[in-house]
UniProtKB/TrEMBL annotation:
The gene is wapA_5. Residues 479-630, 715-831, 866-1114 form the Teneurin-like YD-shell domain. Residues 51-70 have a biased composition (Polar residues). Pfam families: DUF6531 (PF20148), RHS_repeat (PF05593), TEN_YD-shell (PF25023). It comes from Budvicia aquatica. This is Cell wall-associated polypeptide CWBP200. Residues 46-112 are annotated as: Disordered.
Length: 1116
């Protein structure tokens, strides 16, 4: 209780504030609890054995004149759990006695050379012991250990080569990296000691003369038993007491490690060096019911030379890796199984050697290292002449880095080795503060945003960002094992977790009430996953595999998998019997893919590297890739026509220049932090003045200003949490609002506003207020959307199968959509019928059945608008036929055929799309500007029919002039969303919700259309005509969509057909019918086409957000 009042003043107002803080903390202690009675809350007992006391929002920060924290953090009270564990921080040391950090925390270069010591630090993982505590078998080479042999030859250690030695009232721990860490001797008064510099701790075990070591990057608790001045590793356990025991031969050599079901067994050669590592299981021989250890797979085999040096290692697939050394056991070459060879040149000898050159048998890999012992720096010089500099302090921590572009980064640490400050190349500072246990308690970003953390049992208990009423707080309830059992977000929504006694996750219950349950086998493999929504998956494995060989879903559909000994997928057989197969090279890269139709795609790589150079498609066409830079990033892509796409990079590996297949050139410039600050667009005339776009950024790298080539400027604003709140330009104003959980609550587009609200407990979107004031509401049950209403008017009710796929939709006009799926989860049937309210015998109004070919492409549509489709060997549509077409109907083409060039451009003649620019199609001839924008189309006799196009500096279409002189103009916002179009003086404005067109209006709002979509898609659901805000009478029409989500008809509030249309294969409307125009004078316009497309009658094009689509061409 004293801690609660620490720092409180003597006056009453301060005392009241502290009491309120106490109430807040008590309420936060349990995310699911709401404090309604302050007295009851104050009396509530907090079980500190199960849950952590929650710290206040602001951690204690040293209050001195040099504090660089924001002022609001100074002079704050603290509430903390004090950690009085003794600490004896001494950096770990290598065999030379030099300080060293663990390999994962040491900056390395190439194949990997330590940029601190100059030695090789090579870690290779070769397999795992299955179990509730999976144990990795790995080996590790370091140059400074070249005089040490731990059973794998000189210089090598392995993941089990831990031991303790005792001398001079000290304990020395030698680990799997041949690194030694020092601790003071334990006593009856000092049962536990930490070494924060080494990120490790030691304590007494539960037996006489036993010890436990824990460390970062470890796999749990490492148990040692002492005999005299030496203690060997005997077990590794986790916090749930899952244990792997370590066993030795009578001579003291490592024999095996095991858990309850399997073990890793080590075989030795005559020189007592490990020659084989095998995974074994304890099982019956099936004849005499006698149990014995049976080898299931070989993880690794090792060969040695006469100097007891590891010369060759083979993995489970018998792929070999070879090594060469000098006579003092210093590695001088490594040959990978794929053929790449790394070579090292050294200065010094034996364990004191350090690398001065690293090179390989492939191009662009040759680095020289220049060491300076006085400044503790190393300078790297690459094959292209670029240089980098690294500097470490006396404790082997990186304190300075100079990149190849001159960018400098500085790091500072406290006396416990904890990173406290980073100064980036632009001088921006990030700071970190720690609690007594070494956990981060506060971080300060370059924009001075403060994030506070409270930890308990190693887990994050509380995170808070911001100050005052706008503070966002995440709260976790922690169990006695340090696991999060409840997580509460800033809005109050809670996700709950339960665990089995062995630590495996048992269930997750989401805020909407949906629960997923998990079952595991005895070796920790998932065998069943079940959702309260009905989804269910069963997993089956072979004796020793970590990957499933069979997965069965809730409908009994079974998918089979075959894996090689390295866990690479060889074959997948689907429920319908089709299969897909893979082949690999020694680098694990796919060399051949055989798809479900038996077609082969082949991949070739740049020997001896793993970089893709040729991709041969099933039709024999080839894509080629080249890599002409030290970063080994793709520099050229050659398409099937021999056209080349070129890429260039900065010294740090960022793209600096690209020249497309059409010769369009763009260059990029970056600040020293790697953020884009300038883009220059030259088009295909590289000597002309470029279009230049400039970017101004804040300390976090967020865009503040974009200055466009025409001089106009867009300004960007953010809230305290870095969320975009405003974009302002001369033409547009976009504004966003968010709630305490960071969820979007309002979108303002100039004069139009859209608002959102969320369910209090589930956090799901519950309503959207459309720009005309109508509330679109979402109704969820069991985590699924079950209904949608518009101002209480039913729009749709949804029902799902156990797989979560929609099986029925009841529309607000009484019509019913039904959906069926095949064993592959593909839509197999969709029909629209009348509801029971129409008559006693409801009729099917529209129906389609779907058939697919072996590669999953749609091959046939049966029923309404029947179609047959055929494809070439690479999946391009080459024909579409209508078996029901009336050949006398000139509007109904019985067969459409399509041709493509080698690069996939749809063409009407060969060589008509150089650089992916279509020069002509039929009698249509096209002209482009230097940026590849279509500026003119000529057609007709002598090409007299001219259509022209104009663009702004962002290459957006702003003007269209048709052959008859009709002029259309267009405007856009910062996200390239079209905000208006004006055709012969008539203006239509567009309002967006994200990337979805949600409303359009024209004739001074007398014509207003609102669009409602299926959630999470661009599939239209409802069209509403009329502006409710202006008391206009509204009419609702329901979209009926095909399998692509393209509308084929509209129905009215009584279920009557109002509009219908048919399309060709590329979305061009072939027929349109207004069904109630003659009888009722009702005409309904709908411009929605393929998902996300809006048809412009004046151009014949479909606006597609960031581009325009020509359905006659199948592109633009």
């Amino acid at each position: 209780m004293k801690a609660i009042f620490k720092g409180a003043g003597k006056n009453a107002s301060e005392l009241v504030k502290v009491c309120k803080k106490f109430i807040q903390i008590a309420e936060e202690h349990n995310p699911g609890m709401k404090v309604r009675d302050h007295i009851r809350t104050l009396r509530q007992k907090i079980d500190t054995n199960k849950h952590a006391n929650v710290n206040s929002k602001v951690p204690e920060v040293t209050n001195n004149k040099n504090s660089s924290l924001p002022n609001e953090l100074d002079n704050k009270h603290k509430i903390e759990l004090k950690d009085d564990t003794p600490d004896a921080s001494i950096t770990g040391k290598d065999a030379n006695g030099n300080p060293t950090q663990s390999a994962p925390e040491t900056p390395v270069d190439g194949d990997p050379i330590s940029l601190c010591s100059g030695e090789e630090l090579l870690s290779i993982s070769e397999g795992k012991l299955l179990g509730l505590l999976p144990m990795e078998w790995s080996r590790f080479y370091r140059t400074s250990a070249s005089e040490i042999n731990k059973g794998l030859g000189y210089g090598w250690s392995h993941s089990l080569s831990h031991y303790l030695t005792f001398a001079n009232d000290k304990i020395f721990w030698s680990d799997h990296e041949n690194k030694t860490t020092e601790f003071p001797a334990l006593t009856a008064d000092t049962l536990v000691v930490t070494n924060k510099l080494a990120k490790a701790a030691i304590s007494f075990g539960d037996r006489y003369e036993s010890y436990i070591v824990t460390f970062s990057n470890g796999q749990g608790k490492y148990h040692f038993e002492r005999e005299g001045s030496y203690a060997r590793l005997v077990a590794i356990s986790d916090k749930y007491h899952n244990t792997v025991t370590v066993h030795y031969t009578s001579e003291g050599y490592l024999s095996h490690i095991k858990n309850d079901t399997c073990r890793i067994y080590f075989s030795y050669n005559s020189l007592n060096l490990i020659e084989q590592v095998a995974l074994q299981r304890y099982e019956s021989d099936n004849q005499h019911n006698e149990f014995t250890w049976v080898s299931k797979s070989v993880l690794a085999r090792y060969e040695y030379n006469s100097l007891l040096q590891l010369a060759c290692a083979s993995n489970g697939n018998n792929e070999k890796e070879r090594y060469e050394y000098d006579d003092q056991n210093v590695i001088i070459s490594r040959e990978l199984s794929g053929g790449a060879i790394f070579h090292w040149q050294w200065e010094g000898e034996g364990k004191s050697a350090r690398c001065i050159r690293q090179y390989s048998n492939f191009d662009n890999f040759d680095t020289q290292y220049e060491w300076n012992d006085e400044t503790k720096t190393v300078k790297l010089t690459r094959s292209d002449g670029s240089q980098q500099v690294y500097q470490h302090d006396s404790n082997a921590r990186l304190i300075y880095e100079k990149a190849a572009d001159g960018a400098e980064t500085f790091k500072e640490y406290d006396d416990k080795g904890q990173l406290v400050k980073i100064t980036d190349p632009l001088g921006k500072v990030s700071q970190y503060f720690y609690d007594d246990s070494g956990n981060v308690s506060a971080s300060v970003n370059p924009d001075r945003q403060v994030t506070n953390y409270v930890h308990f049992l190693g887990a994050v208990k509380r995170v808070s960002v911001g100050e005052g009423k706008s503070t966002r707080i995440w709260l976790n309830t922690i169990n006695q094992h340090g696991e999060i059992v409840a997580a509460k977000d800033p809005s109050g929504c809670v996700t709950r977790y339960s665990f089995y006694d062995n630590g495996k996750i048992e269930s997750v219950t989401y805020p909407d009430g949906v629960q997923t349950q998990y079952l595991w086998d005895s070796v920790g493999r998932l065998v069943e996953e079940k959702s309260s929504t009905g989804a269910l998956s069963y997993y089956r494995y072979d004796d020793y595999g970590v990957n499933p060989v069979q997965v069965e879903d809730e409908s009994g559909n079974v998918t089979l998998y075959q894996w090689d000994s390295l866990g690479r997928l060889l074959k997948c057989t689907y429920p319908d019997g089709r299969s897909r197969e893979y082949q690999y090279n020694p680098y694990g890269k796919v060399t051949q893919l055989t798809d479900e139709a038996g077609r082969i795609t082949a991949y070739e790589y740049a020997a001896p590297l793993h970089l893709l150079t040729h991709k041969t498609l099933p039709d024999g066409s080839v894509l080629k890739y080249r890599y002409n830079n030290i970063h080994l990033q793709v520099s050229e892509i050659e398409n099937q026509k021999g056209e080349v796409y070129q890429l260039r990079y900065t010294a740090t590996g960022l793209i600096s220049e690209e020249i497309g297949f059409d010769n369009i050139k763009t260059t990029y410039a970056y600040d020293l932090s790697g953020h884009l600050i300038e883009k220059c667009e030259f088009g295909d005339r590289h000597d002309e003045e470029p279009f230049i776009t400039q970017y101004v950024r804040d300390p976090m790298g967020r865009l503040l200003s974009k200055i466009l080539p025409d001089g106009t400027e867009e300004q960007y604003s953010y809230d305290d949490f870095g969320q975009l709140t405003k974009i302002k330009s001369d033409q547009q104003l976009l504004v966003w609002e968010y709630d305490i959980a960071g969820r979007l609550t309002a979108e303002h587009q100039n004069w139009a506003t859209i608002r959102h609200r969320y369910h209090e407990e589930s956090g799901k979107l519950s309503g959207t207020r459309l720009p005309d004031g109508q509330w679109l509401e979402y109704h969820h049950r069991d985590g699924q959307l079950r209904g949608m209403t518009l101002d209480s008017q039913p729009l749709a009710a949804f029902d799902y199968n156990n797989s979560g796929r929609e099986r029925e939709r009841r529309q607000g006009n009484g019509l019913i959509n039904r959906y069926q799926y095949d064993d592959m989860g593909r839509l197999s049937q969709h029909y629209l019928r009348e509801g029971m309210g129409f008559d006693d015998n409801p009729q099917i109004l529209w129906k389609q059945d779907y058939r697919y070919q072996a590669d999953n492409e749609l091959s046939q549509v049966i029923g309404n608008n029947a179609r047959r489709y055929s494809y070439d060997d690479i999946g391009q549509l080459i024909s579409s036929s209508n078996p029901d077409a009336n050949q006398e109907d000139r509007h109904a083409d019985r067969v459409e055929t399509f041709s493509y060039d080698a690069a996939g451009n749809r063409i009407s003649a060969e060589n008509s799309a150089a650089g992916n620019r279509l020069a002509f199609f039929g009698d249509r001839h096209f002209e482009y500007d230097r940026f590849g924008n279509l500026i003119a189309e000529r057609r007709g006799t002598a090409h007299k029919l001219l259509t022209t196009y104009e663009y702004d500096c962002r290459h957006r279409l702003i003007k269209h002039v048709s052959p008859n002189g009709r002029v259309s103009t267009y405007t856009y916002d910062a996200f390239n969303r079209r905000t208006s179009k004006t055709v012969e003086g008539k203006k239509t404005e567009f309002i967006w919700q994200g990337s979805k067109l949600i409303a359009e209006c024209s004739d001074k709002d007398t014509v207003w259309r609102s669009y409602v979509y299926e959630p999470g898609s661009h599939r239209p659901l409802v069209l509403v005509e009329g502006n409710a805000k202006k008391n206009q009478k509204t009419r609702t029409f329901w979209y009926q969509n095909d399998y692509l989500g393209t509308p084929h008809s509209l129905t009215d509030s009584l279920g009557g057909l109002v509009y219908s249309c048919t399309y060709n294969a590329y979305g061009q409307v072939q027929t349109e019918t207004q069904h109630q125009q003659e009888e009722r004078g009702l005409r309904v316009e709908t411009n929605l086409r393929f998902q996300g497309q809006y048809a412009d009658e004046e151009t014949g094009l479909f606006y597609n957000l960031n581009r325009y689509y020509d359905p006659a061409l199948g592109g633009i």
